[in-house]
Design goal:
Aspartate Aminotransferase, domain 1; 4-stranded antiparallel β-sheet; globular
Length: 232
């Protein structure tokens, strides 16, 4: 991403550079992983979603500017709000004035501190790494991503010779049965992999209290469903 900055600035120095760091920005709290997002210092703005790591409301998203004065470029006219510098009416252009949600983020950061939030980030990554390792060591699973961060995309594979559409249908059935059972939940959706559509399941490491025993139990549950469905 730092390379993108240098390429763009070589062409035109005044081009605005924005980084969608909604997920990855959380790494900046971690001593172990902060170096992966140091490129953000070059960008004019970036976004982050605190709900992805700090258990804050889903609606709380944040836009950060390198230069606070640039928030004025987002301004709009609103006769209901005083036209004062940096008024809420100027800095919330998309949905107008809203609850003081940023206070929740500020209080979490002040209460926990950067170091403890960083440990939460690292625990999430550790759980995702463990889940990846469990799946990757089992011939009945295809893992769709190597650069996992917090998420692991996977499919149950009933047989090494199974066609992609058969694998997709088994995983769609696993997903439907999982929703019906209500015991575990993995996100399910279609993606394109090397020109072929795959229906995949995704583990998103959000709860840092999840144990290795629980992760292995979830994998065994998926395997059990997969075997039952494949042999129906």
């Amino acid at each position: 991403m730092e390379g993108v900055y240098h390429v763009v600035k070589e062409v035109e120095n005044d081009i605005w550079l924005h980084a969608d760091a909604c997920h990855g920005f959380a790494l900046s709290f971690s001593d172990a992983y902060r170096s992966k997002v140091t490129y953000l210092r070059h960008y004019d703005s970036c976004t982050m979603d605190p709900h992805k790591v700090m258990w804050l409301p889903y609606t709380l998203s944040v836009v950060l500017m390198k230069n606070a004065d640039d928030f004025g470029t987002l301004s709009r006219t609103n006769a209901l709000i005083m036209d004062a510098p940096l008024s809420f009416g100027k800095t919330t252009p998309f949905i107008g004035s809203k609850p003081y949600d940023s206070l929740k983020l500020w209080m979490v950061m002040k209460t926990l501190g950067v170091h403890e939030i960083g440990e939460m980030v690292e625990a999430r990554i550790s759980n995702a790494d463990l889940f990846y390792a469990i799946l990757n060591s089992d011939i009945n699973f295809y893992v769709g991503n190597d650069d996992i961060l917090f998420s692991v995309i996977f499919q149950y594979v009933p047989d090494k010779d199974a066609e992609i559409e058969q694998i997709n249908e088994v995983n769609r059935s696993i997903y439907r049965k999982m929703l019906s059972d209500g015991e575990y939940y993995f996100h399910g959706f279609d993606i394109m992999v090397n020109g072929s559509k795959r229906f995949v399941l995704r583990y998103n490491s959000g709860n840092i209290d999840v144990t290795e025993k629980e992760l292995r139990a979830a994998v065994n549950y998926i395997k059990k469903l997969g075997k039952e469905i494949a042999h129906e």
